[in-house]
Amino acid sequence: MNRTSTRKIRAVAKHVRMSSNKARRVAHQLRGCTYMEALSILNWMPHRACYPILKVLRSAAANAYHNMNIDKGSLFVLMAEVNEGPIFKRFRPRARGRGYPIQKPTCHISITLEDLDDSNSIMVKK
């Protein structure tokens, strides 16, 4: 194999108490952006899903800085994915002693960053 080694940095948040579809619409906006662009996008979007995704993005950048000594300005979002987690099942009491099922979805958020200086092909946001 004659591949060049790229430095990929990953951070994951598991069991985030949010629907995966709502988090995916925010994560979709970040793919291919630089780290600074992704921060500004997340700070100005009005969705509730922005805060946990912002925490994961900052964690991945901190991992890059502390573990591999990569400057945060030279990072871009290679992959941002949101997968479904387990569903918390609860029951709400209703009339006549019945119970109504409540489903509380969770999701797993993972963000992969890559160093701009190392990568030969940069994903361009369309």
Automatic annotation (TrEMBL):
- GO cellular component terms, semicolon-separated: chloroplast; large ribosomal subunit
Gene Ontology MF term list: rRNA binding; structural constituent of ribosome
A Pfam family assignment:
Ribosomal_L22
Q: Which UniProt keyword terms apply here? A: Chloroplast, Plastid, Ribonucleoprotein, Ribosomal protein, RNA-binding, rRNA-binding
GO terms of biological process kind: translation
Q: Which PROSITE patterns match?
A: RIBOSOMAL_L22
Q: Which InterPro entries match?
A: Ribosomal_uL22 (IPR001063), Ribosomal_uL22_bac/chlpt-type (IPR005727), Ribosomal_uL22_bac/org-type (IPR047867), Ribosomal_uL22_CS (IPR018260), Ribosomal_uL22_sf (IPR036394)
Where's it found, cell-wise?
Answer: Plastid, Chloroplast
Q: Say which domain of life the source belongs to.
A: Eukaryota
Q: Briefly, what is this protein's role? A: The globular domain of the protein is located near the polypeptide exit tunnel on the outside of the subunit, while an extended beta-hairpin is found that lines the wall of the exit tunnel in the center of the 70S ribosome.
Describe the family membership recorded for this protein in Swiss-Prot or TrEMBL: Belongs to the universal ribosomal protein uL22 family.
- PANTHER family per UniProt: CHLOROPLAST 50S RIBOSOMAL PROTEIN L22-RELATED, LARGE RIBOSOMAL SUBUNIT PROTEIN UL22M
Can you state the subunit structure given in the record?
A: Part of the 50S ribosomal subunit.
Q: What is this protein called?
A: Large ribosomal subunit protein uL22c
Q: Which organism is it from?
A: Metasequoia glyptostroboides
